[in-house]
Amino acid sequence: MATKTDEKVGKYIQDVKDNVGEEPDIDLLRKITEALGPSIFRSDAETVSSSSESEMETVKKNFLINKLGLKDDEKLDVGLNAVMEKYGKSNRNKYRAVVYYLLTKYFEKESVYK
Questions:
Q1: In 3-state terms, what secondary structure has residue 46?
Q2: What's the distance, CA 114 to chain centroid?
Q3: CA of residue 5 relative to chain centroid, distance
């Protein structure tokens, strides 16, 4: 029986296919989704506003630096911009799990979720 998390993962898989045009690594996407915990069920926390500078700072600090263990340098901004571009700047609904998934792939930090 599918759980609520399974439903979210299914939605994110479809989102990667539709908006990024890639076949996602489902196992990695599931682990990232699970790591986000209950936040994915709150609409304000489930998505990332790429037009909000403070939101981008939060993603950088909490995810890239604290979770993925990257050092704070200009590569983080380059990566964030590349991922937002890839996900579609005009796409209003950027799911946090998908953003984190794309960032994890971009920075080749899949090992964090092994």
A1: helix
A2: 17
A3: 15
Record the tokens describing residue 52, joined without a space: 């909000």
φ, ψ (nearest 5 deg) of residue 94: -95, 110
What secondary structure letter does DSSP report for 94? E
Alpha-carbon gap, residue 82 to 56, rounded angstroms = 13
Cα 43 from Cα 66, distance rounded (Å):
23
For 95, the enclosing helix (H) or strand (E) is strand 94-95
Per-residue model confidence as pLDDT tens digits over 54-106 = 999 999 999 999 999 999 999 999 999 999 999 998 888 899 999 999 999 99
- pLDDT at position 93 is 84
CA dist 91 and 89 (Å) reads 6
One-letter amino acid of 2: A
CB 75 within 8 A of CB 83: no
Query: What's the one-letter identity of residue 12?
Result: Y
Q: How far apart are CA 95 and CA 98, in angstroms?
A: 5
H/E segment holding residue 48 = strand 47-48
